[in-house]
Write a structure and sequence with these properties.
The chain has 421 residues and is an alpha+beta fold. Helix content is 23%, strand content 30%. The strands form two sheets. It has a twelve-stranded mixed beta sheet.
Amino acid sequence: MPRNEPTQVTDGWDGGRSPGRRKAVRYAVPVAVAGVAAATIGLVPAFAGSGSPDLPKISAQDLIAKVAKSDVQQLSGTVRVSTDLGLPSLPGAGGGASGFGGAQDGGKGGDGASAAPQNKLMELASGAHTLRVAADGPEKQRVSIVDKAAEYSLVHNGNEIWAYDSGSNTAVHSTAPDAGRPGKQHRAPKDLPEDLKNATPQDLAKQALKAAGDTTSVTVDGTAKVAGRDAYQLLIKPKQAASTVGSIRVAVDAANGVPLKFTLTPKSGGAAAIDVGYTNVDFAKPAASTFAFTPPKGAKVVDGDKARAKTPREHGKDLPSHKDVKDFKKDMGGLNVLGKGWTSIATIKGGGSGLPSGKDQGAGGDAGKFLDSIGEKVHGSFGSGRVFSTRLVNALITDHGTVYVGAVDKQALIDAANAAK
């Protein structure tokens, strides 16, 4: 059979399909890619394996539709995770038991903070990780983050949710929403971080495909072997010059349309900033025992339902109350999004005072000097401020305290500030 060749998606394509199909194919906005890059995970490169299998030719439009229609609900496998956003190494990220348990409370388990899913976010934001994943429909999922000296597992089985941190030997048990209500599916709690609920190439690929509009070039760029399976390679490139995203490559299973590997490379080049892929995958129904969990002997078990029922002030004095959040939004003038597509910029208006400068005296002086050393001072008709950069996401904080952030270059941030002054 002929080797698949690159196929260009034309702007505004709908292929004569129905509005429903166009919606399924195009998804929505690429700003989510910046969110994934800034807050979540990626995977180590070298998963494609050797060989480029000969597959029937397919257009980019049809391959995107294949991904959109894929309804695989049963699988198990191993995912390798690493992220290189150009950020400093984070304490506990990818490193031993302290990363999973000790960092929060000396490894004693405390009130269950070390096993709380929200506390895994920072660990997944940088470095390399290995995940074991399994799913059997909407009511059974399991994600385990495996480290050299510890393991963290999040298990959803019917009306039960377990989170277990082996580093502190602490488990948090919760009841799924709608438990006990006839005819209702048991959903995972809304407060579980998306990084743990959506830690697979499928979910990241769906976010990227939201960009399949007139600001994006989408082609089929050959084939690959991923986790032993034949796959097409979907290549996504922004057309907007100011974007810091160079390209996104998604390996799509040729048989069932499941994304097997997701790689985001910055325009600046170098290693992938986000690279997520299966090292092995099986689409058979996982054994029921995969989703069974019993706390190990001696484990501290925390009632997650009671913990969630407490107010933020009771459960964590450092967390803001609803009034604090409301007042903060009022003081900051609210969040706004400028532009569209890959060059969308989120803005938050400041309250009149920005970051301290190196000229500041007293206690703020040292902080100002430090910020001057890591942030580039910039000027424009808006005034002056500092740009803080990673390989993918940049942020401008003006001296008046207004923030501009996006997966765009420095000049795009300055232009946005100048236009908004």
